[in-house]
Amino acid sequence: MPKRKKGRQQSSGAPRERVRVLITGGRIQRRIMALAREIRKDFPGEPLHLVSVLKGGVFFLTDLARNIPGEVSFDFIAVSSYGQKTHSSGQVRLTRDLELTRDLDSSIEGKTVIVVEDILDTGMTLQYLLRLFQQRKPKHLRVAVLLDKPERRIAAVHADYVGFSIPNEFVVGYGLDYAERYRNLPYVGVLLLGPGLKKKPAED
Ligand code: IMP
Ligand code: MG
Questions:
Q1: pTM as predicted
Q2: Rounded Cα distance, 139 and 66, in Å
Q3: 56 alpha carbon to ligand 2 midpoint, in Å?
Q4: Which of 29, 120, 124, 132 is the most buried (most CB within 10 A)?
């Protein structure tokens, strides 16, 4: 029987894939604790409303929320731009809006809002969201991203709180997916594809 190479074998017919660890789960947790302290220091005693972008930002939001002392609430929004590909189409669409309590723009009005995103890549998603949220008159509007790929930026947006700045590589894990897979990894890793297990360029 032929020997299997560890980590390379996929179920029959599927392309070979492997994930090389870039940021361990431990480093992610330590960095999130520091970001949570920094956020609380910037807004002492204020109720904070975290808004996460589904689905990638979910683990970051839950870990961040648990580490911010004091009053914290959260909500979710969904946008679509990527589909099954590994690059942004540049078209951002809202697929799930915030929980709208009384009238259309009331849910974040007057609140200190932190948008929580998994990764800041071209910046198109954030630019769209920030414009939308700004119209709803929050008291403060800030952005927290776990990962930042500054080389890929197209839109002029910046994050107030950044977990890690990373090179221009396609990454998965800790909420980030490749065709909906790998979100459950507790770490962030670079996706390697194909028979030679080459890095998948982000703009591929
Ligand atoms: P942007 O609009 O180009 O900034 O893209 C932001 C969204 O693209 C993120 O919220 C992710 O869902 C997705 N994305 C960008 N880079 C990666 C990556 O390396 N791996 C997985 N998803 C990514
Ligand atoms: Mg996302």
A1: 0.85
A2: 23
A3: 5
A4: 120
Distance 49 CA to ligand 1 centre (A): 23
What token pair was written down for 137? 């008159």
The pLDDT tens digits for 102-142 are: 444 458 999 999 999 999 999 999 999 999 899 989 999 99
Q: Of how many residues is the chain composed?
A: 204
- In angstroms, the CA 167 to CA 49 distance is 30
Interatomic CA distance for residues 42 and 21, integer angstroms:
32
Number of alpha carbons in the 13 Å side-chain half-sphere of residue 113: 26
Could you give the angle at the alpha carbon of 181 between the alpha carbons of 175 and 182, nearest 5°?
50
Q: Which two tokens stand for residue 179?
A: 């065709």
Which among 76, 84, 118 is the best mutation to test ligand 1's pocket, defined by most ligand atoms within 8 Å of the CB? 118
